[in-house]
Amino acid sequence: MPESSVRHDAIINAIMANVGRSTLAFEEVHADRQHGTAFWFNDLVDSTSDAEVIRQYLVTAAEVTRYDVGELTLRPELCEPAMSAEKLLMTDFAAGWTVLGELGVAVMSTAGLHAHGARKGWSWATDEITDGLAANDEDIARIGAEPQPAYILGHDVGETDGERLQAVVVGQVARGDDSHVHWDSALPVGCAGAPVFVGNPLGGGRIKLVCVGVVLPGEKQNRIATFDRIRTALRELAADPGREPVPGPEPVQGPDREAERRPSWWRKRPRNR
Predict the structure, then answer these.
(1) Which H helix or E strand runs over 9?
(2) Distance (Å, rounded) from C-alpha 20 to C-alpha 209?
(3) When comparing pLDDT for 241 and 171, which is higher?
(4) Which of 1, 21, 85, 133 has its CA 20 to 30 A from that of 79?
């Protein structure tokens, strides 16, 4: 087997093993348009010897969120206990997203999603793009004009039935004349907003899996909003009390709408020892 094929397989396996459950397919309800992919991201706010404090978001491309009612596809493996695949409707969909300046990226607090699961008797069982996996300044600086292999983890749209299956799309990224990082291949319909990964060599046959950022809509040479800029924008957002994201809208499912206290969009998790 060619070395390049072995490398592709190793990186794809690493993506699926670490963040295979990080993505959600969504689209405008009752409309064959505005298909997108979002993913869960844990932004590390503080770290002590005992715990890490994070803010948790859904992240996607802002352009595919601009409508009133959205439909999320809930894959069985994303919830505990596991259920059959369902469609979750979210009203006031566009209003639930906070656009990060001119980056082309939108984020949503996951509080509403957690509240919905708790009310229905299940919990989310997702993977998240962590702060350690998201590219830093040095990772982004390594991407130059010479194309390098890259991988999109998204949900394309089936040609016959529109089914939103998850797929790893193999292509390349490179830095363009505009100084932005771009995806060089055709972007499948439904993958706008998805995370993009590269495998940086560490020597000795080892690789470092890095999430470069968010692939944005476009007909060709799609721009990627890189995580160095996304991270900066999120920290600026958190530092401005007037712009703090409200809890994202809770999905509409079933007739019972009893009042409950929604969880905070701040979450604390024990540090791995």
Answers:
(1) helix 3-19
(2) 13
(3) 171
(4) 133
With respect to residue 209, please indicate whether it lies within any of the assigned structural domains: yes
Mean pLDDT, the chain, whole residue set: 85
Domain that includes residue 222, residue range? 3-254
Buried b (16+ CB within 10 A) or exposed e, 14-45: bbeebbebbbbbbbbbeeeebbbbbbbbbbeb
pTM above 0.70, yes or no: yes
Beta strands in 62-194 (DSSP E): 70-74, 79-80, 86-90, 98-99, 105-109, 123-124, 148-155, 166-175, 181-183
Beta strand 23-28 pairing with 36-47: antiparallel
List the CATH number of the domain containing 11: 2.40.10.120
How many other C-beta atoms lie within 10 A of the C-beta of residue 4? 9
Distance, CA of 223 to CA of 187 (rounded, Å): 11
* pLDDT range class, residue 270, cuts 50, 70, 90: very low
Q: State the total domains in the chain.
A: 1
Distances (CA, A) of 186 to 64, 253, 272: 17, 35, 40
- Tens digits of per-residue pLDDT, 69-119? 999 999 999 999 987 768 899 999 999 999 999 999 999 999 999 998 999
* Residue 248 is assigned to a structural domain of this protein: yes
* Torsion sign over Cα 248, 249, 251, 257: positive
